[in-house]
Amino acid sequence: MRKVNTKLYVVALIITLLIFTAGVLLGLVIEGERVEYLSEERKIQETNFNSLQLQYLYLSGLEEKKKCPALSTALNKYIKETDELRVRIENYAQQSNIKQEELGLLKRQYVIAQLNYWLMAKRTKKLCETDYVTLLYFYEKEQSQSMNQGVVLDYYKKKLGDDLLIFALDSEFTQEPMIPMLMSAHNITSTPSIVVEDTVYTGFHSKDDIQGILCQSYENKTEVCDE
Fold first, then answer.
1. In the predicted model, is pLDDT for residue 11 greater than 80?
2. What is the pTM of this model?
């Protein structure tokens, strides 16, 4: 009978455990770096908003609104960056084993940043008399109607650019109290729902529907309204 080399098996087992442990530790390091990166991004957004708020307060005390174009440009830039952060957080949530507490905190910080910009956009529009439309979009993940509504809104965002500011909110993310508060304030009980300049539209709306909704909100009709 062939003698089993016990020592060889023990060594192989130790090597396997070391490789496995190294892999786990590497994964934890990568996860930690991802969380740190997203946290840094959130801090940048917070600083951007504070700067924007300061610009707004400065302009609101002036009779002349010559700096309004610069304020609007900065606002649009920061809104775009915040939405890019949302996409990264959602992708990260699907690909990683991050603790739900940490993920929930990151999502709350994103939602708060987004709603800060929404409120700032409404105030800036009034202060600077700019002709853009703000739109709150309440959706539900994995819901076909919400997905289809998102496609329609993306179409008009590409068409209208900075003239249409969309703020997408996950209706099921109740960890941030502002979401159920806004839904209650606008009497929203189902998704998809959109709020355009404080008017609520419930259910899926086609391209033609959205075109009509948006065009009646602009003071000066855009090219989209002539299609």
1. no
2. 0.74
Place of tokens 């033609």: 208
Mutual orientation of helices 100-128 and 6-60 as an angle, nearest 10°?
Answer: 20
Where residue 22 falls among pLDDT bands split at 50, 70, 90?
very low
Domain coverage including residue 88: 1-126
Total structural domains within the chain: 2
With beta carbons less than 8 A apart as the criterion, state whether 138 and 191 touch.
yes
Calculate the CA 50 to chain-centre distance.
18
82 and 154 assigned to the same domain: no
| Same domain flag for 86 and 184 | no
Q: How far apart (Å, rounded) are the C-alpha atoms in residues 72 and 102?
A: 33
The residue-averaged pLDDT of 165-188 equals: 93
- Residue 61 burial (10 A CB sphere; 0-12, 13-18, 19+): exposed
| Beta strands at 164-170 and 133-139: parallel, antiparallel or unpaired | parallel
Q: What is the mean pLDDT of residues 79-86?
A: 78
By the 8 A CB rule, do 38 and 92 touch? yes
**In this structure, what DSSP letter does residue 2 have?**
P
Token couple for 216: 């009646």
Partnered with residue 110 across adjacent β-strands are none
